[in-house]
Amino acid sequence: MSISFNDAVINEYRANGGKISGPLADSDLLLLTTTGARSKKQHTVALGYVHHEGLLLIVGSYLGAPRHPDWYHNLLAHPEVRVELGDAEFDAIAVPAEGDRRDQLFAAVVRAAPGYGDYQANTARELPVVVLERWETPAAARRTITTLADKILEIHAWLRAQLSQVRAETEAYFAAREQHPDPAFVPSLGMQIRQHCLAFCGTLEFHHTSEDAHIFPVMAGYHPHLREAFDRLGTEHLDIARIKEDLVALLRDITSADPHRFRDELDGMARRLLAHLDYEESVLVPLLADVPFPPVHPQSDTRD
């Protein structure tokens, strides 16, 4: 069975550390893996990119087609993406630029790769410029991961840091709003806040779902005397999930989202989640300190 041009490029890219042959041999390409907006399946595409002042930029040109490419709709729904750049691979948060910043970045893109200017001239839609922000564990939380306790603490540190960043960006939004000369002007929350908050919500959901499905049932079986504690953790997951869903619903359309309600929901998330993480660490970390990570699977016995 024949494979698509995109799949052929991806296969060659991965087989040769980011190098490909043919008409795209001299192109700056990366592989972007997004999560389907509806299907939630993984999709990988080969895209051109531009480096500008330390930023990694991609453009939703779709060769000047009248609609945005599917991968762009995917990252709006699920900002957490996987980037393969040469022989490097890393997670990132995809943040579309807005307003004057978008125009400035697009001008930089066109200077580096003039073809994007032609694509823009061929369509009435504004080509989105997306910044791929490398998703890294906060420096203060970096550790050598040898146990499941280490991994839990690393994830918790990222959640705390990301929540703190979204809250700081939200307060900066309100500060800027108060300084606007027209008191009636109410700007939308913005894509930076939206994408960071959705990435935080997505990671939080995955973490809690994994705990509910795997860690809590196993640990409760080994430590029946802590059943009440695990029941409490599960109940707190449900409470936090309700707040998460409210945040996600608000951010579906940032142009109409009530900023004050968003800040209130975010404050409620912070109160409940930070207390939950502290309690969970007091219960789980001592139990998981001797559990290897990644898991060690015993070798099967092949003797007769």
Structure description:
This protein has 2 domains: 130 residues, Electron Transport, Fmn-binding Protein, Chain A (Pnp Oxidase, Chain A, Roll), CATH 2.30.110.10; 150 residues, Four Helix Bundle (Hemerythrin (Met), subunit A). The protein is built from 8 helices and 7 strands, in the order H-E-E-E-E-H-E-E-H-H-E-H-H-H-H. Strands 2-1-5-6-7-4-3 form a 7-stranded antiparallel β-sheet, with helices on both faces. The longest helix has 32 residues. The radius of gyration is 22 Å and the shape is globular. The C terminus is likely disordered. One of its GO terms (molecular function) is coenzyme F420 binding.
The total count of strands amounts to 7
User: From N to C, what is the helix and strand string?
Assistant: HEEEEHEEHHEHHHH
Number of domains: 2
**Order of neighbouring strands in the sheet with most strands:** 2-1-5-6-7-4-3
By DSSP (H or I, 4+ residues per run), the number of helices equals 8
The CATH architecture of the largest domain can be named as: Up-down Bundle
Beta-strand portion reads: 5-15%
Terminal CA distance: 42 Å
**Which range best describes the helical content: under 10%, 10-25%, 25-40%, 40-55%, 55-70% or over 70%?**
40-55%
Q: Determine the structural class based on helices, strands and strand pairing.
A: alpha+beta
What is the level 1 CATH name of the largest domain?
Mainly Alpha
Largest sheet: 7 strands, antiparallel
Which geometry do the CA atoms define? globular
Give the C-alpha Rg. Answer: 22 Å
Low-confidence parts, pLDDT < 50 over ≥5 residues? 300-304
**CATH domain fold name of the largest domain:** Four Helix Bundle (Hemerythrin (Met), subunit A)
